[in-house]
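Dear H.,

Thanks for agreeing to be a second pair of eyes. The structure we're designing against is below in token form, covering all 267 positions.
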């Protein structure tokens, strides 16, 4: 298990502050969603927590160590990251791409061991893409490609997976396919999953914990029942929402909403 939290995290680009004085703990073995309006700092926070970008001050702590003190290969054994709209070289096959997940464990000339091949086979099987092993990644559908990237993350054998808007550009059926796969990985393997989501009903349905951001600060963090509330959504998204109960899951459901009169979402 991997413990992750931030302490007084301050992130910005030049003189522009994106995330300010943010302290949060990620629940272990749970699915966490980060939600908020465009430009509120969701992806920036995710990138800082995975060391893609550096914080200006404050710390990301992983298993008692600052993320800046952990060697790259060791960090890659603790967490996997699936960025928004990932790309791979043209013509690369599914099997070749997923094999990159074994890089943190390779030595010398980087030849795959039997253990590496076994893990790659397992990752392809569990994500349902083994039939495409020899197919070029760029020949697959959007939903298939997303499952291949998740297989790559699984091949790293990390306890934590970070995903930045994993359902972007996917139709509703493929969105459901990807989210159900992540839910299954969490249920069956206790993987800690942290993802940025735009759809608040998807966050409520598939996640155990939600962090709602506004202008780089936490408005509310807690269970779905704590966060999917009319007053929280009013502050975060500037909407008047009607909250009901999802008949399939029993979780909160935003059934309809309107912009608050005289306000705009772009503030």
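And this is the sequence the design step returned. I haven't edited it by hand at all.
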């Amino acid at each position: 298990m991997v413990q992750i939290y931030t302490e007084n995290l301050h992130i910005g680009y030049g003189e522009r502050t994106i995330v300010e004085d943010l302290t949060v703990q990620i629940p272990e073995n749970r699915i966490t969603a980060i939600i908020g309006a465009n430009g509120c700092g969701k992806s920036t926070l995710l990138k800082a927590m995975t060391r893609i970008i550096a914080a200006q001050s404050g710390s990301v702590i992983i298993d008692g160590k600052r993320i800046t003190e952990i060697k790259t290969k060791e960090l890659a054994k603790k967490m996997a990251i699936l960025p928004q709209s990932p790309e791979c070289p043209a013509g690369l096959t599914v099997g070749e791409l997923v094999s990159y997940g074994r890089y943190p464990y390779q030595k010398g000339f980087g030849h795959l061991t039997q253990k590496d091949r076994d893990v790659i086979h397992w990752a392809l099987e569990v994500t349902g893409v083994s039939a495409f092993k020899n197919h070029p990644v760029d020949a697959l559908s959007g939903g298939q490609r997303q499952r291949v990237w998740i297989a790559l993350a699984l091949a790293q054998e990390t306890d934590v997976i970070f995903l930045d808007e994993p359902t972007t550009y996917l139709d509703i059926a493929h969105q459901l396919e990807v989210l159900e796969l992540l839910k299954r990985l969490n249920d069956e393997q206790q993987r800690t999953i942290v993802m940025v989501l735009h759809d608040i009903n998807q966050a409520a349905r598939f996640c155990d914990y939600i962090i709602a951001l506004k202008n780089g600060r936490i408005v509310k963090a807690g269970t779905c029942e704590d966060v999917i509330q009319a007053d929280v959504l009013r502050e975060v998204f500037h909407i008047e929402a009607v909250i009901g109960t999802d008949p399939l899951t029993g979780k909160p459901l935003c059934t309809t909403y309107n912009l608050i009169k005289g306000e705009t979402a772009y503030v």
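Two observations from my side: Residues 172-189 form the longest helix (18 residues). The mean pLDDT is 94.

Warmly,
E.
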